[in-house]
Design a protein that fits this description.
With 402 residues, the protein is of the alpha/beta class. The protein has two domains: 3-104, Enolase-like, domain 1; 108-369, Alpha-Beta Barrel (TIM Barrel), CATH 3.20.20. Helix content is 37%, strand content 17%. It contains 13 helices and 16 strands. It has helices spanning 40-55, 63-72, 80-101, 105-108, 128-140, 184-201, 217-227, 246-253, 267-275, 291-304, 319-331, 345-350, 376-379, and strands spanning 3-11, 17-24, 29-33, 117-125, 145-150, 179-182, 206-210, 234-236, 258-260, 281-282, 308-309, 338-339, 356-358, 361-363, 391-394, 399-400. Strands 4, 5, 7, 8, 9, 10, 11, 12, 13 and 14 form a ten-stranded mixed beta sheet that branches. Strands 1-2-3 form a three-stranded antiparallel beta sheet.
């Protein structure tokens, strides 16, 4: 199965997506998600100028060898741009291999480890009352788990709270990034009580909350202690993950489960966090972590250390990545939960897919391969538009983690 064509398709059906499409000499095609939110064209250029020429004439069936070739052969290893590009290639090759076998991808990954993929939705609002309304709407739709994000009194805007509750999109199509303000004091003062009100209203629901890298380890430890009696499913990204030793402080002070990893692309970036059992859920995704091949290795390391998966799945990843994630989730033994945000109708038009939601669970479908394609005619109707993620400053103007 020699590769005869590799192309990058950039489109923006409501937000920007980068897709790699690989074609073999016998006409099989495979696609992979290469979207890096807020820096999309960096990956598109890397693929078009450097990676795609290397794929031509190579055997599409040699997936692991291709991964090693692109990772070790570049000399400059890791990093979000390089790993996102490798992810796209790896996912597209798995798509081709499964299509050649006439099987849904999960069958090539060892088959089902479960009947469906547990997912969580996003409930957000400027007030607790708004959040409660959205949590109720998710429960009515059968969700067993919901992430809750609240407006912070005294702050004009807050991560995770948007005007469009169903299709939350933080990237903004402006000349410069939007600047948000942040106060840890105001956050710690309001959020535990807000989550407590949701827990009182929904005592049996799995509740999740994302801090989004904004605390210090001792602040995160204090928050974790205050939330212990509320039995969170997880507390996500409490501190920036570059200083992995900081998680030792959190772990020594609280039993609230910790989820981390959506910005960490390799097994080496996650080795300390997993190996020392400093986290409970690893959040890196197919699109961030070098594709299905490398994410399976991360999951295997995590399994040895009682860490479960909880892959990132917001709408900054296309339906191509969501489909790949669901096949991965269905197969790995230490799966925990999958983030799921529905895409806009325009996005679903560009990326027709067979995966579906039912009563709190997602199902990847039984189509050969990933079960998702790209409609290039539809994609052509939505040209790229530059967009930035926001930046964050403390109330005194100091730059802070967004």
């Amino acid at each position: 199965m020699k590769i005869v064509e590799a192309r990058v398709i950039v489109c923006s059906p409501g937000r920007n997506f980068v897709t790699l499409k690989i074609t073999t000499e016998d006409g099989l095609t495979g696609i992979g998600d290469a979207t890096m939110n807020g820096r999309e064209l960096a990956v598109a250029s890397y693929l078009s100028e450097y990676v795609c020429p290397l794929l031509l004439g190579r055997d599409a069936g040699r997936i692991e060898d291709m991964w090693q070739y692109l990772y070790k052969g570049a000399y400059w290893r890791g990093g979000p741009v390089g790993m996102t590009a490798i992810s796209a290639v790896d996912t597209a090759l798995w798509d081709i291999k499964a299509k050649a076998a006439g099987l849904p991808l999960y069958q090539l990954l060892g088959g089902r480890s479960r009947d469906g993929v547990l997912v969580y939705g996003h409930a957000n609002g400027n007030t607790v009352e708004e959040v409660l309304e959205w949590v109720h709407s998710y429960v009515e739709r059968g969700y067993k788990a919901v992430r809750v994000q609240f407006g912070i009194p005294g702050l004009s805007s807050t991560y995770g709270v948007g005007s469009d509750k169903l299709y939350y999109e933080p990237a903004d199509r402006g000349a410069f990034p939007v600047e948000n303000s942040w106060s840890t004091e105001l956050y710690l003062r309001s959020v535990p009580a807000a989550i407590g009100r949701v827990r009182d209203a929904f005592p049996d629901l799995h509740l999740l909350h994302d801090v989004h890298h904004r605390l210090t380890p001792i602040e995160a430890a204090k928050l974790g202690q205050r939330l212990e009696e509320l039995s969170l499913f997880w507390l996500e990204d409490p501190v920036p993950a570059e200083l992995q030793e900081g998680f030792r402080i959190i772990r020594s002070h609280t039993t609230t489960p910790i989820a981390v990893g959506e910005v960490l692309p390799t097994i080496w970036d996650l080795r300390t966090l997993i190996g020392e059992q400093l986290i409970d859920y690893v959040r890196t995704s197919v699109q961030r972590a070098g594709g299905i091949s490398h994410l399976r290795k991360i999951a295997s390391l995590a399994e040895l250390h009682h860490v479960r998966t909880g892959s990132h799945g917001a709408t900054d990843l296309s339906p191509v990545c969501m489909a790949a994630a669901l096949h991965f989730d269905l197969s790995v033994p230490n799966f925990g939960i999958q983030e799921y945000m529905p895409h806009t109708p325009e996005t679903d038009e560009v990326f027709p897919h067979s995966y579906r939601y039912s009563d709190g669970f997602m199902h990847p479908g039984e189509e050969p391969g990933l079960g998702v394609e790209i409609d290039e005619d539809a994609a052509g109707c939505f040209p790229y538009q530059r967009a930035y993620l926001p930046v964050n400053r403390l109330l005194d103007g100091t730059m802070h983690s967004w």
